[in-house]
Design brief:
alpha+beta; about 45% helix; two-stranded antiparallel ribbon
Length: about 200
């Protein structure tokens, strides 16, 4: 089977060269973004909590990667999730956010990973300094956020299912609302590789 039958040899060669140039540019551009994110570390004992998955530090705003907490379309749940993250941060020494190896591995997979930045926020993994616990895992396990499958690879699905079964956190306040949010965030867009995403 011939690739591009009927196309003259010099045009095939030019198409090949163009493809290589675009590929090299794309790879170098993504490496630069990843390198910038891996150098970034934001930490504070008292960050400003915007909502259950967004935090503001004096030097930048962070979106906690891999989870989604209720937003403005569910104001009561958003307020409760925001308060929960505020209490956890106060109890466990604030938040420490950086690009972790977990984030790096997820971005390397062909799963439509998030860019290092979105809407002016850095997409980073966060931990509580006092106990090194994952903020994302804690919020999902306590029922204040859901697994955001295309950005987590399904890392928090088991924790979310346990929280739902126990009616923990927001699952006990509005089970149907949380179920709908979980369904919305469980989908994977067309074109994303799903063979490594936990179902």
């Amino acid at each position: 089977m011939k690739l591009f039958p009927g196309v003259p040899r010099h045009q095939k060669w030019m198409m090949g060269v163009t493809f290589v140039i675009v590929a090299v540019y794309s790879i170098s551009h993504n490496k630069a973004q990843l390198a910038e994110a891996t150098k970034t570390r934001l930490t504070s004992p008292t960050p400003r909590i915007i909502d259950g998955d967004t935090v503001e530090f004096p030097n930048g705003r962070v979106r906690i990667v891999g989870i989604d907490a209720p937003d403005d379309d569910r104001p009561q749940l958003k307020a409760i999730a925001t308060d929960a993250l505020q209490r956890l941060g106060a109890r466990d020494g604030g938040l420490d956010c950086s690009a972790s190896m977990f984030d790096y591995a997820l971005r390397r997979e062909n799963q439509c990973r998030t860019d290092p930045k979105s809407y002016g926020r850095l997409n980073l993994s966060c931990r509580f300094p006092a106990n090194k616990a994952s903020v994302g895992a804690s919020m999902v396990a306590q029922g204040y956020a859901v697994d955001y499958r295309m950005y987590s690879g399904g890392a928090y699905v088991d924790l979310m299912q346990k929280a739902a079964a126990q009616r923990a956190g927001l699952w006990g306040v509005d089970y149907e609302g949380m179920r709908q949010l979980a369904i919305e965030r469980a989908s994977v867009p067309d074109g994303c590789a799903v063979e490594t995403i936990k179902k």
